[in-house]
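TL;DR need structure tokens for one chain.
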Amino acid sequence: MSRTDAQLLTLACTDAGAFRELYERYAVRVHAYHRRRTRNSDAAYDLTAETFAQAWQVRARFRDEADGSAGPWLFAIARNVLLMSVRRQGIEQRARERMGLLADSRANGDVVPDARWLDGLDEALDELPPALREALRLRVEADLDYDQVAAALGTSAPAARVRVHRALSALRRRFLQPMEDTR
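>> reply
TL;DR here they are.
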């Protein structure tokens, strides 16, 4: 007799094999969901992995509201993962554009980093005030969200955003002005 999704999730709190069974039931459908929305198989695999990672983390909070099916719960997680990915990608793209970190590559139409901005980057980072430098490092290098940056710095999320913004603005002033003068 086959176990319901709800039973598997209950068992998954102490038995990883039960979660694997749930994964095997839904992985293809969750991947198809992400593939339809992204039109990119690689991105869909990444998003599917993130969906199940999130589901694993919150498995103990599952509430059976669909007669034993975890489908609606999993697809709600998949939707949230997709939305966060789109939001994060948009924020990162706008930040790269504001900093002038992208240049067109005429060879294949792809957008690639403009290597000129790397000259003097270490020195410019060293010149930032320590609080700004650390906020930027946590946000960019450690890839933390602003709540996590704030927690690491012992401040609020809005204050963390301000620090990252100020650090990026200082770098932009330093690097974009010389580039604009040489164009």
